[in-house]
Fold IMP dehydrogenase.
Amino acid sequence: MRATLLYAADDVRVENVADPKIQDPSDAVVRIVLSCICGSDLWPYKSLPRTDNPRHMGHEFLGVVEETGSEVHTLKRGDVVVAPFVYSDNTCAYCREGLHTSCLHGGQWGVNGVDGRQGEATRVPYADGTLVKLPVSEDSELLPDLLTLSDILCTGYHAARTAGVTRGDSVTVIGDGAVGLAAVISAKLLGAEQIILMGRHQTRTDLGRDFGATDVVAERGENGIAKVRELTGGEGTRKVLECVGLKDAIEQSFGVVRDGGTISRVGAPQFTDVPFGFGDFLRNITLTGGVAPARAYIEELMPHILNREIQPGRVFDRVLALEEIADGYRAMNDRAALKVIIRP
Amino acid sequence: MRATLLYAADDVRVENVADPKIQDPSDAVVRIVLSCICGSDLWPYKSLPRTDNPRHMGHEFLGVVEETGSEVHTLKRGDVVVAPFVYSDNTCAYCREGLHTSCLHGGQWGVNGVDGRQGEATRVPYADGTLVKLPVSEDSELLPDLLTLSDILCTGYHAARTAGVTRGDSVTVIGDGAVGLAAVISAKLLGAEQIILMGRHQTRTDLGRDFGATDVVAERGENGIAKVRELTGGEGTRKVLECVGLKDAIEQSFGVVRDGGTISRVGAPQFTDVPFGFGDFLRNITLTGGVAPARAYIEELMPHILNREIQPGRVFDRVLALEEIADGYRAMNDRAALKVIIRP
């Protein structure tokens, strides 16, 4: 089958790889209907040293079950399914607590002999635990919205949930990428009253307003912090959802959070030390979040998509064929595209 | 009156200072019955550069009201009272949320014309908000226990509460100082099942066992982490209460916390950056805590002292007269004493 391989920074290729096959009795093989490119795919796209052992790319997809192993009981050939961006057994102690990213048997797509997701098909370990059946057909117009359950919607929601966003809350969302916009949707779902979106790309922040942002702050750093404080009677917001992962963004988070408030970060941190010393200790700031256990939220969020209350699929602004995927990486990296769907 | 002044590292003196007087109508003047030396007093005791403008020391006390301003309504001359380690109006938005340390009108003892607490008497701003009446006489044998409501018991409890310790929980307490021991008491009050105390002073860890620690780990660093993991099936504890404030202690906290767990720190951090990068992001660790709003917890904790369910006053292992206070600083700094009571 055809699949996406990264050989070096800026060297994405679509090549023939081995067809996926059932290897373990808990596996399924799924034909991919939609996949997409993630902001986090851009980190290796920008930095991977040249290698003869290319990286298998992609971790978000939905598709149709083609074959199941002998121990798969909840799925059958023809089922339309979505998968979270890591696989997990959904039965271990961590999974039962909703922390599927720490699953004792789980792992990442694209490594250790598990295919990436930007390809024609894929082997899914722990299929019963990993895959969630979608009650739609594979030509449903809701597929792009449902595809966001694979990562960005659940990641934005993880930020809002771990921050403890509640009805009437004040929230700052830092970052107008797909995850930031999903965090706006999530804060609104949880009843936030004031949602300040910090971002400087107007087409994205306009979409953020459609999703529920009450204010947009385009300024960054000290000016951005001053603006958020102006909008909140000098205090800052009770919750801050940090959806970038750069040190500037976390510093900005401490600047806009109210005393006693919570910063949740879901942007994968590109730094090792958090500037969190005595001053913010005196203010009783909490820092939470982490990689999102998407699997824990899929069933909870899906009904909001099915009843059309939310339309997270609007973050996709370009659809490409698998063979064109290199254009998609380039467009996202140049910020010419917000998020790109791939149709194998 | 006589009061404690710090002129330089290792230069504590008891000298005559101006008698406290009502300055604002919300003030009270309180005669101090018991005060004590805090672990945090040792930071300036170890490091203060020589000054002609000595620091007024002390922030923990209980005493008897001598005089009240015209706007003090809930207290009268003769009332036995305890005060938290910062003063606060108890009416502003932050106080109403239980975050008295961020009170819009609050402040610290010993600065801006407010007396320290290691003296014979003191002016108390916002007396109605700050002071809590104690239902005992000034010769009660419970006074040492009740004095811990001023800081250490509430600080340990803040660690346990912000960490979210619940019934059946597993908890590591880092530090066998007075606050660490108070954190053990607090974790037990909240129903923790496993309480691992990390500390290497056996008289203190023995007291910790009396207070409810189920295990003691004397090792530090990697060895200490390995020991805690051994005691928890390899996983670490769900909650970690960091009661030291040094970088080693926070690093140790990340080492012993279970995936998805929470570290609460109440040891005033003596460093600016927290080592909290991608690895712990993948584990969904939360870092919370901060300076304790003691005022928020006094009414809640007092009944447990009055009914003798807890005896936090056992952390006091030396009683000195005010004129002997320099000996108390020396003994605590040399770890010859755990916590010293001062009787003016």
Observations:
- The mean pLDDT of chain A is 96.
- Residues 2-151+294-343 of chain A form a domain with the Quinone Oxidoreductase; Chain A, domain 1 fold (CATH 3.90.180.10).
- Chain A has two domains: 2-151+294-343, 163-289.
